[in-house]
TrEMBL record, chain A:
Pfam families: ABC_tran, TOBE_2. This is ABC transporter ATP-binding protein. SMART domains: AAA. GO terms for molecular function: ATP binding. It comes from the Bacteria. SUPFAM superfamilies: MOP-like, P-loop containing nucleoside triphosphate hydrolases. It comes from Pseudovibrio japonicus.
UniProtKB/TrEMBL annotation, chain B:
PANTHER family: INNER MEMBRANE ABC TRANSPORTER PERMEASE PROTEIN YDCV. Belongs to the binding-protein-dependent transport system permease family. It is found in: Cell inner membrane; Cell membrane. Its main location: membrane. It comes from the Bacteria. The chain crosses the membrane at residues 12-35, 73-95, 107-129, 135-154, 185-204, 210-229, 241-263. This is Spermidine/putrescine ABC transporter permease. Pfam families: BPD_transp_1. It is a multi-pass membrane protein. Gene3D superfamilies: MetI-like. Residues 69-259 form the ABC transmembrane type-1 domain. Keywords: Cell inner membrane, Cell membrane, Membrane, Transmembrane, Transmembrane helix, Transport. It comes from Pseudovibrio japonicus.
Amino acid sequence: MVAIRIDELTKQFEAFTALAKLSLEVEQEEFVTLLGPSGCGKTTLLKLISGFLDPTEGTIHINGKDVTRTPPEARDTALCFQSYALFPHLTVRENLEFGPRQKRISAHDRKARVDDVAEKLSLHAQMDKLPNQLSGGQQQRVSLGRALVMRPSVILFDEPLSNLDAKLRDQVRIEIRRIQKEYGLTAIYVTHDQNEALAMSDRVVVLNGGRVEQIDTPEALYHAPKTRFVADFIGDANVFSGTVQGEVQPGLWRVETAMGTYDVATSTPPKEKDVDLCWRPESAVLGDAGHTGKVINRAFQGHFTDLMIETKGVSYRVQSRATSAQEGDTVNISIPPEQLILLERTA
Amino acid sequence: MTMSKLNKVLMISLLVICTLWLVVPFTMAVLWSLVDPSQPWTADKLLPPAMSFYRWIDMWQNSSLKSALFTSYALAPSAAVLCLLLAAPTAFALGRFKFPGREVAKTLCLLPLVVPPFITSIFFSSVLFQLGFTGWRFGAILFAHAVLFLPYAIRILTVSFEQVRQEHIDAARDLGASHWARFRVAYLPALKPGIFAALLIVFIQSIEEFAIAFIVGSPSIVTIPTLLFSALGQDFVRPNAAVLSLILVVPNVILMLVLEWLLKSANPTLSSGKG
């Protein structure tokens, strides 16, 4: 069942279009991440879903109900703020109880809900403390708890990990995902960190300049990016412009690039002659076959070695697990046809 | 001379200056208020030759001190509250909204403080008379005080409104809070110190204000300053003036202490967030 349906949503700030005709459906209990660089419209979209902004055009339905013009206090969404936004003069318990109090939930139910959340987030020892007596991670958990006690249809996260240090970030990330599954929540999560998006999400919406670049599972985004932007933004990628020569075998297309000719295995034939060709640095095979290139930089990274290689004046990146190539060496590189990805040319 | 010796000398001079500045006038006022009318305190005597509470009892029984006290202490808190209510919308706009000319507007709000208070008082009084606004003299003074001391209240409350964090308002809203609940949980904690400070300043200004209270109020309304000025002015009796000024000072000091304590209880780190 669809939890959130967004149709042709547009938001303009005077002349600036923050979001252009965005459509998205989020399933019940799905974890969807909005990913993109700053200014891509991801926070605008979150604010539109939570009700803090009114769309210029388009509609939003939550559980089949049109909430496009419903104010945030009447929406069945709960937002976890980037800065936590805990009420500083209230204790942890009072912070957690604030929402249920507003909804006039009976004292008995309120206590049950708060105790349940405190249990799940191990906040019991902190209940009578003030927010400024807590660590960043604990504040983050209170903020999550305050959203959870609302038992919302949709829980929204606005870069919740950006104020935590790297080690804590992994821990809280796992915790957020666990809680989301335990409560069976539909979640929308905003981040600019691709690792976070890949690790947590059922599906990722990649946004760029107020438009959707691609909506897909993390695996599909990595292995089959559709545009040059997605290929670049998710992981490392080598992208070259090329021209399609023709189908050499069924499902195998020959593409001419500045570096040489490649055969690409693809089930969907290219629509146009001019394409972008993309491959991941780790899919190159260093060996006897393929193009020759000169190693211009070598960086040992532990479980792999990062090489910058130049062929016919074009430089690209290769990651290899076992190579003894040194700077200045000439190597042979081949890329398996199924590891090559054809991208749509975008204007 | 060593450093510590210099420090000591500086410390002692500071104490001496403070004593001269604060304690001597206060002691003089106390002594003058205790002079018994039977024997005058002439310049050749260090202490008054005869001391009694005669002046205190006399002033309490035979002057308009009681009604002046009542008027002043009814006027000042009312003016403070009214002033706060009048200042709140402007301060809200200046503190919460971004609009072109905001900084200019902020400065303009402070401008009335540059003009000598006596001048604004005289002109404001004449406005009140011209509008026929003087039927209820107490009300006219109250209104005048509330309006004239607006710059203080607006300035203080503007800063307080700027301290309110938008995400607290948004969080309260997201959790389903009504307007009133949002005000209580997001605005009030940040505004509290400013509200106390504004109330205190307007209260003290109103208690001490002479010009308007005199022009608009006399002769039917007597406040402590008008009584004091008349004791100092036409029938100048120094012991009576001493009694009056002491009465004027003591409650203010107590009030100051109470409000300081209240301000401390409104912990600023609690309103500013992470602390």
